[in-house]
Amino acid sequence: MKILNAIIAGVAQGSMIALVSLGYTMVYGILKLINFAHSEVFMMGAFFGLFLTVGFGLDTSPMFAGVAGTLAAMVLAGLLGALVEKVAYAPLRARSGGRSNTNTRITPLVTALGMSVLLQNLAQLLFTARYRSYPQLLPIENARTIVFVVAVVVMIALQFLVYGTWFGKAMRAVSVNVEAARLMGIRTGRVISMTFVTGSMLAALGGILYCLSQSQVYPTMGVVIGTRSFVAAVIGGIGSIPGAVLGGVLIGVIGELTKLTPYSGLQDVIIFTVLIVVLLVRPSGLLGKAGIEKV
User: What distance separates the 2 farthest-apart alpha carbons in the chain?
Assistant: First the structure.
């Protein structure tokens, strides 16, 4: 029974990680960029959700306040993601002029780390460093079920968006060759910005569900979850939407099962060991596709 409960909790935890991991994998699929600031957007989205839920009248209509606050927080997180892309990454793309070399790969990576630190410190200035509890809108068991269902629905919706719509076709074209996509009339800047918006909205949703089911919200909460979400994206195959979900669920289950052993404190060590084994066996990830890249 303990193992079954651990697996159920792990699937719920992994589903939340998957929602954040999808943002990493979408941005990487388009720009080949690891957006480390994404974990702080996750944290900011959780703060937005807390304040907006209370602001929409939590005492009078808790369910309406919860739904409205979540949707509004997703919109604000999407705008924050677009702002990060516009301020931090768009100037670097314009400066590189589409060229690919060592400098153009390292500079966005350092910029992403800088944006992560900036957002984390901004959150501490705005919200202080104290922990804040989310209102208990749902029982823990119901919250875990909702997290899993939402993750599956989001994965299906994203698959349809990427492979069944014109915007998804534009995203895939940009991921193959930005300059060729621009010559074909695709507004590459808009596609990239909307990719950041979509990933940031999912991160906010994951943050709110995470705080509703198992955590308080605080300025450094994105560090651990962001790291695990990135690892999930790599294990599943970064750039693959089903891979991000699979990696997230796998990490969640491994983490919860580890808590049943005497080595519960080595949870992250075991997760990174799994990452190393997967990369040794399948460098492109479990569901990733190996490809040839010109450098």
Answer: 59
Token pair 């014109």 is at which residue?
166
By CB atoms closer than 10 A (0-12, 13-18, 19+), residue 42 is: buried
Nearest to 124 by CA among 212, 206, 40, 35: 40
pLDDT tens, residue by residue, 243-269: 888 999 999 899 888 888 887 788 888
CA distance 5 to 261: 14
Amino acid sitting at position 167? F
Placement of tokens 């790969």 in the chain: 105
Closest CA to 18 of 119, 158, 116, 117: 158
Q: Which two tokens stand for residue 39?
A: 């974990």
Contact 92, 33 (CB under 8 A): no
Structure tokens at 20: 């954040």
Q: Are 50 and 225 in contact (CB under 8 A)?
A: no
The whole-angstrom separation of Cα 152 and Cα 147 is 9
**Which pLDDT tens digit goes with each residue over 93-137?**
777 665 554 456 678 888 888 999 999 999 999 998 889 888 777
Q: How far apart are alpha carbons 271 and 98 in whole angstroms?
A: 36
